[in-house]
Design brief:
about 425 residues, alpha+beta, Cytochrome p450, five-stranded mixed β-sheet, three-stranded antiparallel β-sheet, binds protoporphyrin IX containing FE
Length: about 425
Amino acid sequence: MDANVNSDAREDAYTRPLDSIDVSIPELYQNDAYQPYFERLRREDPVHYYADSKFGPYWSVTRYKDIMTVAINHQVFSSKWELGGVRLEDQVQGYERPSFIQMDEPDHGQRRMAVSPAVAPANLQRMEGMIRERTSRVLDELPRGRPFNWVQEVSIELTSRMLATLFDWPLEDRHRLMFWSDVTVCHVDTPDAPVHSEAERYAELQKMAAAMKALWDERAGGNAPRFDLISMLAHSDATRNIDFRELLATCSLLIVGGNDTTRNSMTGGLIAALENPVELDKVRADAGLLDSLVSEVIRYQTPVIHMRRTATRDTELAGRAIKQGDKVVMWYVSGNRDEEAIDEPERFVVGRPKARQHLAFGAGIHRCVGDRLAEMQLKILWEEILKRDLALEIAGPPVRLYSNFIRGIRSLPVVIRA
Ligand code: HEM
């Protein structure tokens, strides 16, 4: 399928033969041109097979209800790294990353429990004041009357500081965490990727794991664990004996989990809110709608484009026969625009009934462990923006990420009018 579809995406989506639709092409997301293809698939072929993609043959699950079916049926739809893991793109042999997002039960659950206290309500309460203070400072220091890059100055600044706190990592070195996050998610064949081969990617992540191991050794001593992720991993029965490769994989998961997703919700949310000033006015008039704004921002952006599973046996989904070993891809960006599940899904609406019922955090046993933290960070950001009554304006088009996995925004020029 031709990747250069941004100008005529709708016409192309509806005129090409159905069986030629390949939604794995990263340019579709870079050009923000993917929705018409999913719209047609939801209507005409909701569980769609494409045989010839760059990433091999795969099934696309595009409707909300079918995504839910796959997500909660983890016995039939496995996340196991040994079967290929959770991304459409298979991990290259010898460079697999066995983190708990790529495990089934019981291994997944035991490990997830080891880190979940870091983002549980008690710890979130402890962190709230600090997040608010940092957010306030970042907003107060933004330039007035001249354009700046919102992604760099706000979204990356806030999420990188948060990540450093979660790992109890030196704040002044937080850019290294950002770099390793980019290394983890990039498509190595793009010219501006931070690494250009799997070997190079793995070498960088080994450096990250070595740095984390040094912190681990310091914190693994006899004392009670502190509140950071490394201490929790070092002290939990399920994880204290993990090998270097799993440490690498786990840290890389936690870095990406806490970084790209929230970062892109901060940027995508700004675009959506400024393009829909009436919706923002609703929140100005009623602060009780802040939670709804946050959920709508996350649904509307849907920062994780897809998660993949592998069928552990022959099965059927929406009348299609799926064979054992087939790749099954849940397209969250499509499920969150499904007209059968969400009223007027194309519109950004504050105050939707059941605003939290979206698929951006996934569903089932792998549902995002950091969802409440992400929501809290976004809520504080919007509270502080509205408190200051900042006259924010978008000063140019966003530059989007080349990826079929993270719906990312690399830069967004913004001005604060005096
Ligand atoms: C708006 C922000 C966020 C979004 C949209 C998001 C999205 C997701 C999604 C879709 C999954 C499901 C994976 C699957 O089904 O295979 C997931 C899992 C996960 N997320 Fe998030 N995430 C966000 C924020 C965070 C934060 C702040 C953390 C902080 C640590 C985090 C850590 C994780 C981890 C560790 C998993 C794996 C859970 C498991 O396998 O049990 N995420 N996230």
